[in-house]
Amino acid sequence: MRLGMITLDTLDPAPVAAWWAELLGGALNDVGGTGEFLVLSGAIPGINLGFAKVPDPTPGKNLIHLDFDLEAGEEREALLNSVRAAGAEHQAHHEFPGIQWDVFTDPFGTVFCIGDAHD
């Protein structure tokens, strides 16, 4: 068994999926053609991001969140600035010995982090 997709529940999948596609690249597919479930593929090697329409998303803090690692040679501040420019809101910066990461929310409230590689 392997993890193939992480799905975000939302009231309106199209703008959420479009925002993530703009940020990460990849291809969006409207599964079933109803606009109720979209899949972003090719943006994260081996993992698809799903965006599902739900009538009542879980309120409060996300039970899970997305962690993105800086790639070798990627300049931290330039990447963080591009994420802010795309509309993400910076929430916090954390540091422990040997690792640091920044917490963001996308324009729709989804929490995600960008930090040092977890290797």
TrEMBL record:
Transmembrane stretches in the record are none
Domain VOC: residue ranges: 2-117
SUPFAM superfamilies membership = Glyoxalase/Bleomycin resistance protein/Dihydroxybiphenyl dioxygenase (SSF54593)
Coiled-coil annotation: which residues? none
Query: Superkingdom of this entry's organism?
Result: Bacteria
Q: Fetch the PANTHER family from UniProt.
A: CONSERVED PROTEIN, HYPOTHETICAL FUSION PROTEIN
Which named protein is this? VOC family protein
Tell me the organism.
Mycetocola lacteus
